[in-house]
Design goal:
There is one protein chain. A hairpin with a 7-residue loop joins strand 6 and strand 7 (329-331). The strands form two sheets. The protein has a five-stranded parallel β-sheet with strand order 2-3-4-1-5, sandwiched between helices. Helices cover 65% and strands 4% of the residues. The radius of gyration is 34 Å and the shape is elongated. It is mainly alpha-helical.
C-alpha cells in the first residue's frame, strides 16, 4: 500500500515529514522570532521543553513552514532508544539537506559488527562539516528516547557541531544534555512552558477564530485563567462547548482542575457528546501509534475509517497529520493515553491482536512485534511475539539494530528464548556483538542442541553455524573447528543469505590463514569477493577487497594485490564523486604495496588519503591499521615528527578503544631498533615474552622479524639461527613469501657473520628470486645495510632488480645527507619536484590533484614541504627560488 511504513531498518517517511501547519492556527510571532534568532545569535541548541499539550509541535511546524533556513525534521519514537535505529533515522533526516550526507555512517551501521555508539558520530560530523547551506535539524518528542548511548551521541554532536548546523530539541522534560554549559556559554535558546502558554489575546484568537466559538471577553479571560494558558485544556474545553450546546458562562463557571485531571474530565465530556460510532472509533484506535484508514479498518472492523479520520481532523479533535496527503495520522499522545485508559484489558488485548495481524500481513514485523508483546502481556501468552521475533531478528540484525533485537528477546521469558533454536541463535549473536563471550557460547550451545534435535533446515541453522565458526576463530581460536563450521555454514545457507555467506567466508579465510598455506585463504577471499559484490553493501565489499589484497601481498603477489586495489577504488565514490570513507581501507593497502616497491611518494599520497578517510569512517580499529601502515612510510621518508605523531595517535586509540594492538609495541620497537636503540628493543622483547623457540602466529610474522633483527643487533647468532631458520621454513611451508624475503635476508646475514659465505649467498639468492618478479625492494632496505654488500654474489639472478635496489639504497643515503646539488639543507622529493613544476605552469591545487591523481589535501602538504625546504612563503617565491638554483629549466 502507498506510503505505508516500511519494515524495521528502513526509514519511515512520515517520521521525516514536517507536520503540515494548520491554516487556521494561532499566529505566534514572538516565539517564531525567537526561533529565527537562535542561529543568528550563534546558539547551538534551541530547547523547546514543556509538558504535554502546550503546542510544541504545532509551534515548530508553523515556524519550519516559513523559515528562511533549510529545515529537516525527525519525529522520535521509543524504538529510537536503539542507537543504530536512532542513527539510521538521523542520517535519513540529514540526507534531506544534502544527498550523500551520512553515507559513511550508514555503511558502518550495516557492517557485521558495528562499533560502540560513542565512536559512530565522527564520520557523520565530518560529513556535516562540508555542508555550506545553513540548516536546522528538529528532533521532536525527544522525551521518548530513554537511552544513555543516544544522549551521549547527541551531546557529542553538540560539542562538535558544524557551523552550518543548528539543533532544535522538542521534549516534555529536559534531556540529559550539557544544558548548563551551553547556557553559561550563551549557546542555548530556551522556550519553556511559561513561554508556550497562550496569552489572553492568543486564547481569544484560538477560541473564537480557530474553534469558531463566540465567547465574551469575560468568558475567554476566565477560561484562560482556569487553564493557565494550557493549550490542550483550552482545546478540550472548546470541543466540549461545541458539543454541549449549553450556556458557555455556566460551563466556564463549573470548569475547574488542572492538566491531567482537566484532561480526564474534558475527554469524558467530549466522548459523551460524540456519536457512538466516533466514540468507539476513538477508543479502539487509541492503541495505535500511527493511524491510516486500512489499519483502522482492520482494528475496528469499520469501512468508513477514512471519513472518520478526516472528520476528526476537521473538528480539531487532537489528530495530527503526518504527511501532506493526509494518509497517515497520529493522536495527540496525552489524548491517546487517556483514551486507552477507558479500555478494559480484554478489549485492549483484542485490539492489539488485530493490529498485530494487519502489520504482519503487510510485512511490517517491527510494529507487529510491539502489538504482539502488548497482547501477550495481557493474555500471558507471548508465543506469537516469539514467532514474529524469529522472523524479524535476522533482517534486523543485518540492518545493525542489535539493541532492538536484544530488547525484543529481553521481553520474552528466558525459558521461551532457550526453548527455540532460532531465538537462542539470535540471542547468541547479540551477546557476541556485545562482547559477552560466555553468554554467546552458552546460547550457541543451546541452539545447537535444539536445532540438531529438530533436524531443522531453516534459515536459523545457517546463521547459527556462522556464529559458531566466528566464535571458533575469535574466542576459542580453534581454527580447524572454525574451518569445519564455516564449510558447513556455506553448505547450509541459502542464496538469499548473502551477508551471512560473506561472514562465513571471512571466518573460513581467517582460519585458513592461521593453519594452512595462504593460497587456500586467497581462493576463499576471491569467493567472498564475488559474494560481497552480490550483496551490494559497500562496507562488506571493501572489507573483502582489503582481505584479498592483504592475503595476496602476504603471498608475495604484489602485482595481483595492486590490481585488486586499483580496480576496486572507482566503486567507492560517493554521490559527489569523492572517495567514500570505506575506500580508506583500500587506500591503506595500496600504500603498503607502493611502499613495498619503494615508491615512497605514491605510498605517502595513498596513506594520507587512507588516514583521512579512515578518520571520517570513525572506526578506531581501521584508523589504527592505517597508522600502522603509515609509520614505516614516514620512517623511510625521514619524517620524524610525523612518525612520532602517528605513534601517539595509535597509542591513544589503543587506550580509548580498548583495542588489542600487539603489533603497535613491536612496530615501535622495530623503528627504535632501526634508529640504533637496541636497549629499547630488548626491553620490548622481554616484556612481550619473545624467545627463539616461541611458536609463530601467521598474522604477527612482522613481530618475529623484529625479534630477529634484535638478535642480530645483539650478536646472538646461535639464537638468531634457531629462530630465523624456523621462521623461514615456516614461511615457506605457509607460502608467506612477503615475509620469507626478509627472513632469508636475515638468515643470509647470520650466515655471513658466522663465516658461512656459501650459505649467505644461498639464502640471499632465495630472497632475490622471490622479490625481483614482484618488485619487493623495501625488505632489503629495512635490514642491516651489510645485506647490500652481499648482492654482488647474486646479481646475475636479476641484474635489473639488483641495480635498481642499489640505486634506491643510494637515494636513501642521500636523503640523510645535505643536498648540495640542489643547494638545500633537505632535498625535494621526486613528487615535490613534480608539484613544483605544475605550480610553475600556473595550475591550481585542484588541477594539480587531478593531474597527479591525489587528494587536494595531499597537494597542500607537498606545497608546505616545498615552502619549508626552499625557505619561501608563496608560490611566486617558490618558482623564483627553484629557478635560481636550477631546479626548474
Amino acid at each position: 500500500m502507498d506510503n505505508a511504513p516500511p519494515g524495521w531498518g528502513a526509514p519511515l517517511a512520515t517520521r521525516l515529514t514536517i507536520p503540515p501547519p494548520r491554516p487556521d492556527a494561532v499566529a505566534r510571532p514572538r516565539l517564531i522570532e525567537r526561533l529565527d534568532d537562535a542561529p543568528r545569535l550563534g546558539h547551538r541548541l534551541t530547547l523547546v521543553s514543556a509538558p504535554a499539550g502546550f503546542g510544541k509541535t504545532t509551534l515548530l511546524s508553523a515556524w519550519a513552514g516559513g523559515s528562511e533556513r533549510a529545515v529537516t525534521w525527525l519525529t522520535l519514537e521509543e524504538s529510537d532508544a536503539d542507537p543504530a535505529q536512532f542513527l539510521t533515522y538521523l542520517v535519513a533526516a540529514l540526507g534531506q539537506i544534502e544527498a550523500g550526507i551520512g553515507e559513511p555512517l550508514r555503511q558502518i551501521l550495516q557492517s557485521p559488527q558495528p562499533p560502540p555508539p560513542h565512536s559512530l558520530l565522527a564520520p557523520l560530523i565530518n560529513d556535516l562539516a562540508t555542508v555550506e547551506t545553513p540548516f536546522t535539524l528538529v528532533l521532536d518528542d525527544y522525551h521518548l528516547v530513554a537511552s544513555q548511548p543516544v544522549h551521549e551521541m547527541l551531546a557529542f554532536l553538540l560539542d562538535h557541531q558544524p557551523p552550518a548546523m543548528h539543533l532544535v530539541v522538542s521534549t516534555r522534560e529536559d534531556p540529559p544534555l550539557p544544558l548548563a554549559r551551553l547556557r553559561a556559554r550563551g549557546q542555548l535558546t530556551e522556550i519553556r512552558e511559561r513561554d508556550l502558554r497562550f496569552s489572553v489575546e492568543e486564547a481569544a484568537a484560538f477560541l473564537n477564530q480557530t474553534m469558531r466559538l463566540n465567547l465574551t471577553p469575560e468568558a475567554i479571560s476566565a477560561l484562560g485563567a482556569r487553564t493557565e494558558g494550557w493549550i490542550a485544556g483550552l482545546q478540550l474545553a472548546a470541543v466540549a462547548l461545541q458539543k454541549g450546546g449549553g450556556d458557555p458562562e455556566a460551563f466556564v463557571a463549573d470548569f475547574a482542575g488542572s492538566d491531567r485531571f482537566v484532561m480526564d474530565y474534558l475527554v469524558a465530556e467530549v466522548l459523551e457528546r460524540e456519536p457512538a460510532a466516533v466514540r468507539d472509533f476513538l477508543r479502539q484506535t487509541a492503541i495505535l501509534d500511527r493511524l491510516s484508514a486500512p489499519l483502522c479498518e482492520a482494528v475496528t472492523g469499520r469501512a468508513d475509517s477514512q471519513a472518520i479520520l478526516e472528520g476528526l481532523e476537521q473538528a480539531n479533535l487532537f489528530l495530527v497529520a503526518l504527511d501532506n496527503r493526509r494518509e497517515w495520522y497520529r493522536y495527540h499522545r496525552l489524548f491517546a493515553q487517556v483514551l486507552r485508559n477507558t479500555l478494559d484489558p480484554a478489549a485492549r488485548a483484542a485490539l492489539h491482536r488485530r493490529a498485530m495481524g494487519w502489520y504482519e500481513a503487510n510485512d511490517l514485523l517491527g510494529e507487529a512485534i510491539e502489538h504482539a508483546l502488548a497482547w501477550g502481556r495481557i493474555e500471558g501468552d507471548l508465543s506469537d511475539a516469539g514467532r514474529l521475533i524469529e522472523r524479524a531478528a535476522e533482517p534486523t540484525l543485518l540492518s545493525g539494530n542489535f539493541q532492538t533485537v536484544r530488547d525484543w528477546l529481553a521481553a520474552l521469558p528466558p525459558a521461551d528464548v532457550r526453548a527455540s533454536g532460532a531465538l537462542a541463535t539470535y540471542a547468541g549473536w547479540v551477546a557476541f556483538v556485545a562482547g559477552a563471550a560466555p553468554k554467546a557460547l552458552d546460547y550457541a550451545q543451546t541452539a545447537d542442541v535444539l536445532l540438531g534435535k529438530d533436524d531443522s533446515e531453516g534459515p536459523a541453522c545457517g546463521v547459527l553455524t556462522v556464529l559458531q565458526s566466528i566464535i571458533a576463530v575469535v574466542i576459542l581460536q580453534d581454527y580447524e573447528l572454525a574451518v569445519a563450521l564455516a564449510e558447513k555454514a556455506l553448505a547450509t545457507l541459502s542464496d538469499t543469505q548473502g551477508r551471512w555467506r560473506v561472514m562465513a567466508l571471512w571466518a573460513l579465510g581467517e582460519a585458513q590463514e592461521r593453519t594452512r598455506p595462504i593460497g587456500e585463504a586467497i581462493r576463499t577471499y576471491r569467493e567472498a569477493q564475488g559474494a560481497g559484490r552480490a550483496v551490494g553493501n559497500p562496507f562488506f565489499t571493501a572489507l573483502v577487497d582489503a582481505w584479498l589484497a592483504s592475503a595476496l601481498r602476504t603471498h608475495g603477489e604484489r602485482g595481483a594485490a595492486l590490481a585488486v586495489c586499483q580496480e576496486s577504488l572507482p566503486r567507492y565514490l560517493d554521490e559527489r564523486g569523492r572517495p567514500s570513507p570505506v575506500a580508506g581501507i583500500i587506500y591503506n593497502w595500496l600504500a603498503a604495496l607502493y611502499y613495498d616497491a619503494n615508491q615512497l611518494d605514491e605510498a605517502h599520497d595513498a596513506i594520507e588519503q587512507g588516514v583521512a578517510l579512515s578518520e571520517r569512517l570513525g572506526l578506531p580499529g581501521y584508523l589504527a591499521n592505517a597508522l600502522a601502515i603509515r609509520l614505516p612510510i614516514q620512517a623511510a621518508l625521514g619524517d620524524v615528527e610525523g612518525e612520532a605523531e602517528s605513534l601517539r595517535t595509535a597509542h591513544r586509540l589503543a587506550g580509548e578503544g580498548h583495542l588489542a594492538m600487539d603489533w603497535l609495541g613491536a612496530m615501535e620497537a622495530n623503528l627504535r631498533l632501526l634508529g640504533g636503540d637496541v636497549a629499547y628493543a630488548a626491553r620490548w622483547a622481554e616484556e612481550a615474552g619473545c624467545s627463539p623457540s616461541a611458536p609463530f602466529d601467521p598474522l604477527l610474522v612482522e613481530t618475529s622479524l623484529t625479534y630477529g633483527r634484535l638478535l642480530l643487533a645483539q650478536d646472538r647468532l646461535e639464537d638468531a639461527e634457531e629462530m630465523v631458520g624456523r621462521l623461514a621454513r615456516y614461511a615457506e611451508e605457509r607460502e608467506l613469501y612477503r615475509w620469507l624475503i626478509p627472513a632469508c635476508i636475515q638468515w643470509a646475514l647470520i650466515a655471513q657473520r658466522g663465516g658461512d659465505k656459501e650459505g649467505a649467498v644461498e639464502h640471499l639468492a632465495r630472497a632475490v628470486e622471490l622479490a625481483a618478479p614482484e618488485g619487493f625492494y623495501r625488505p632489503f632496505l629495512e635490514e642491516d645495510p651489510q645485506a647490500l654488500d652481499l648482492l654482488g654474489g647474486v646479481r646475475q639472478l636479476a641484474p635489473a632488480f639488483v641495480g635498481q635496489l642499489l640505486e634506491f639504497a643510494g637515494v636513501a643515503a642521500r636523503r640523510a645527507a645535505p643536498a648540495a646539488d640542489q643547494g638545500l639543507i633537505e632535498p625535494l622529493s621526486e613528487r615535490e619536484l613534480e608539484v613544483l613544476a605544475l605550480i610553475a605552469e600556473g595550475l591550481s591545487n585542484r588541477e594539480i590533484a587531478d593531474r597527479l591523481y591525489i587528494a587536494v589535501g595531499t597537494v597542500k602538504r607537498h606545497i608546505n614541504h616545498i615552502y619549508g625546504k626552499l625557505e619561501v612563503g608563496s608560490r611566486t617565491q617558490a618558482v623564483a627560488r627553484a629557478r635560481q638554483i636550477r631546479l626548474l629549466d
